[in-house]
């Protein structure tokens, strides 16, 4: 958290060099925090994994919605200073570090066993979790990066497109909290994955092809679906792991490989749009990613654990 705060300060105080280097440092910090959170849930809340995953996923979605909606107003409030608009987010990072500090004092001076986890890269279930994480994240990246442009291309104003995306993100908050909790009430998570992926694809195709008059409904449907897909991807890391050590390693694999896979989606959308000059062909990308995520999710949603060895070093 302190490294994150340092990155945020760096990118707002030292011009273009600080902007890029600080963003790199902040991004790396967020990556480490994201990998560790599922293992902390597994360690501290082993019997409430669904509920706690929903809570912190909801916080992620809410934070993203607030940041996206307030970045420009903050800069405008401070006479158009983008540096202050970016530097403002140093404050919540420091507050989070302050709240986390008591956790570090509790373990200070306490010996912590170190475990080595073997066999994760050879386990099919681990790869199924990773593929689901990557493919559903790719759809999310496409929505965040390209949905406003798609909507503007269909005839909406930039302001209307931005508001619609914000509404979709806000809808994610509700499903991100509720879906993991409900999904852990059944024998496995396959039905929940089928439901949220179906909602996501329906919302995506509605935003791409449906009449403009009903786009708010499709965007809300998309948000409900994507909030559920993301929170379930994180919940699967916890649920498919026997202990917190396995969860930390599976989280690293799923998010490391998964986000690498996810990064190809927005690039593919840009290439297809440049080649065709239209947004209509993007539906094929939505279909391939969505169906792939559904298949991977149905495999990863089975009530199993990854088969690995976890040994104390």
From TrEMBL:
MF annotations from Gene Ontology: transmembrane transporter activity
Stretches that traverse the bilayer: 20-41, 53-74, 80-101, 125-144, 164-184, 191-212, 218-239, 246-269, 281-304
Domain of life of the source: Bacteria
Record keywords: Membrane, Transmembrane, Transmembrane helix
One Pfam family this sequence matches: MFS_1
Keyword Membrane included in the entry's annotation: yes
PANTHER family documented for this protein: 2-NITROIMIDAZOLE TRANSPORTER, PTHR23523
Protein name from the UniProt record: MFS transporter
Organism, scientific name: Pseudomonas viridiflava ICMP 13104
